[in-house]
Amino acid sequence: MCFLFYLLVRGLRVGADCIVEFCVDRFMEKAESGSVNGSANVLSLDAVRDTLIRLEDTIVFSLIERAKYPINSAMYNESAGLVAGHHGSFIKFFVKRTEALHAQAGRYGSEEENAFFPGSLSCSLVSSRPSTNVLHPVAKIVNLNKDIWDMYINQLLPLITAGGDDGNYALAAAADLACLQAISRRIHYGKFVAEVKFLDDSPEYTRLIRARVCITS
Ligand SMILES: *[C@@H]1O[C@H](CO)[C@@H](O)[C@H](O)[C@H]1NC(C)=O
Ligand SMILES: *[C@@H]1O[C@H](CO)[C@@H](O)[C@H](O)[C@H]1NC(C)=O
After folding, report:
1. Is residue 216 part of a domain?
2. Contact by Cβ (8 Å): 156, 187
3. Pocket lining: 44 vs ligand 2, CB cutoff 6 Å
4. How far is CA 109 from CA 124, 140, 198, in A?
5. Is this structure's pTM higher than 0.85?
6. Is residue 85 part of a domain?
7. Which of 77, 90, 157 gets mutated to test ligand 2 (max ligand atoms within 8 A of its CB)?
8. Atom nearest to 77 CA in ligand 2
9. Cα of 89 to ligand 2 centre, how many Å?
10. Number of structural domains, the chain?
11. Directed axis angle between helix 169-188 and helix 45-66, to 10°?
12. Which residue in 15, 57, 164, 202 could disulfide with 70, CB within 3.0 to 4.6 Å?
């Protein structure tokens, strides 16, 4: 529900009533199907499907937020020197520093989270409860964020934004990070899809993995 709150506060007034209705419906559906009730059925195919739909909605809304600002190319220029004492682009400065804080608060302890700059993160400073992991440990090393970053900045961003520069770098960078994280979550959720399918027919998938058969659907 805080996503709804965010939309309203940011002034996306078009059809606010429809959005309320849509969100409440979605929320009720989830409550009834039990997928808001802890991790009991995290790995049912239905729960995974619901999550995929929700993640896609989040991508669309975060792209709409970013499209409010022009492309602001200087933010992505490695040699524009926008941040005193920092080499590299404004966007990298923004994302690295944000991820550093989130890492210290324990964000990347979650199996659903993948950092864009995992090399420069410190450990969590927060003692956390032992989590129940559902993925195979090797899933941790699957991180496609470098490709997602390049695709988003070089291909997607020019398509969704107007040309020009309004100087709103911090706001545009925050919107970029929301888009990047939404896309990353959706793509990496494929790990959970793979796990569900594997658990559904372990002997057959084990055979295919041993035979190194590549499954693309
Ligand atoms: C939520 O999960 C708990 C523990 O697994 C269970 O006792 C409870 O009945 C569940 N609630 C709903 C609404 O399904
Ligand atoms: C990046 O910024 C530098 C320094 O301001 C400038 O010379 C260069 O043309 C910019 N590059 C692009 C691709 O805009």
Report:
1. no
2. no
3. no
4. 8, 10, 23
5. no
6. yes
7. 77
8. 1
9. 11
10. 1
11. 160
12. 164
Nearest CA to ligand 1 atom 7: 37
Q: CA-CA distances (angstroms) from residue 22 to 26, 62, 124?
A: 6, 17, 36
CATH number at residue 159: 1.10.590.10
- The residue to which tokens 């959706």 are assigned: 186
Per-residue pLDDT of the chain (217 residues; tens, 9 = 90+): 344 444 443 444 444 455 455 545 555 554 455 444 444 445 777 888 888 888 999 999 999 999 999 999 999 999 998 999 888 999 999 999 999 999 999 999 888 899 999 987 888 888 877 777 888 888 888 999 999 999 999 999 999 999 999 999 999 999 999 999 999 999 999 898 888 888 888 999 889 888 888 766 5
Cβ of 40 less than 6 Å from ligand 1: yes
SS3 143: coil
78 CA to centre of ligand 1 in angstroms: 51
